[in-house]
Amino acid sequence: MKFRFKAFGLHLLASSAALSTILGCLYLGWYRWPGWVLTDVTRVVIVMVGVDVVLGPSLTFIIARSSKPRRELSRDIAMIVALQLCALGYGTASLWNGRPMYYAFSVNILQLVQAYDIDGDQAALGRQENPGLAPHWYSLPRWVWAPLPTDSEVSAKIVQSAINGGDDVTSMPRYFKPWSAGLNELRANLKKVDNVAYFAPSEKKTLKERMRAAGLATDELNAMPLTGRGHPLLAVIDPATATIKAILKPK
C-alpha cells in the first residue's frame, strides 16, 4: 500500500505541475478577467482536470503494486500517461484556439473576439492593410474600435453576412481602429443600466447593487453590455472620459 501511495503522489504531483503550468500561462497571457468568464471554457478545464489530475493518478494507484514486474508497471503507466497527454493536448488546443484576441466596440456593444473568430484570410488581410492592429500568434488581448466601413455598399455586405451567420466586422481586423478613435461613438451609445439589453430584471437589480457598492451612479448614461460565448457582463464607463470604470457580473 505504501508503494501505491508513493506512485499516486508522484503521478499527482507531475500531472498537477504540468496542468498548472499550461493553465497559468494561458490565464496570465490571454484569459485574465473578463476573458475567462466571457469565453465560457469551464467545461474544457473540467475535462482536463478530471483526466489529468483525478483519473490519471487514480489509475496509477489502482495498478501500482510492488510485486508487479517493473517492465509491466512501466508499460501500464505509459498507457495512462498517453491518455492524459491526449486529454491535455485536446484541452490546450481548445483553449489556445479560443483565446481572447480583442475586446471590440462595434456599433452599440462591446464584444469579445476570440482567435477562432478570425480566419486565416481575414488575419492575412489585416496584416497587409492594418498591420498595427493585426493579429499574430503572440498577440495579447487588445481593446479596439471596430466600426463598419464608410463605403455603404461594403458596409451593407458585412451587415448581411453577419445576419446570415457569416463574418462580422469584428472578425475583420483590416477595419479595426485604435480604441481612442471610437470614444465619441462610444459615449453616444451609453445607456442607463435599466435600459441595457441582454439582462433580466433580476440581473439588473444585482448589477445596480454592485454599482452602488463600487460608488458608481446607476441613473446615468454610463453602461454598455460586454458580450462573448458566456453570459454577458456589464461595462460601466465614465461618460466624461469614456474610460471603463468597472466590468460587473450580473449574478
Provide a descriptive summary of the structure in words.
- This protein is α/β, with parallel strands linked by helices and 251 residues long.
- The protein has a domain at 2-97.
- Helices cover 50% and strands 14% of the residues.
- The protein has eight helices and seven strands, in the order ααααββαβαβααβββ.
- It has a seven-stranded mixed β-sheet with strand order 4-3-1-2-5-6-7.
- A hairpin with a 5-residue loop joins β5 and β6 (233-237).
- It is elongated, with a radius of gyration of 23 Å.
- The model has no long low-confidence stretch (mean pLDDT 93).
Question: What brief labels describe this structure?
Answer:
about 250 residues; 7 strands; single chain; 8 helices; alpha/beta; seven-stranded mixed β-sheet
What can be said about the biggest beta sheet?
Answer: 7 strands, mixed
Q: Total strand count, please? A: 7
End-to-end span in angstroms?
A: 46 Å
Oligomeric category:
single chain
| Order of helix and strand elements from N to C terminus | HHHHEEHEHEHHEEE
Q: Order of strands side by side in the largest beta sheet?
A: 4-3-1-2-5-6-7
C-alpha Rg, in Å?
Answer: 23 Å
Short description:
This protein is α/β, with parallel strands linked by helices and 251 residues long.
List the helices and strands and how they pair.
Blueprint: H1 2-31, H2 35-39, H3 42-63, H4 70-97, E1 100-106, E2 109-114, H5 120-129, E3 142-145, H6 152-163, E4 177-178, H7 183-188, H8 201-213, E5 223-227, E6 233-237, E7 244-248
Parallel strand pairs: 1-3, 2-5
Antiparallel strand pairs: 1-2, 3-4, 5-6, 6-7
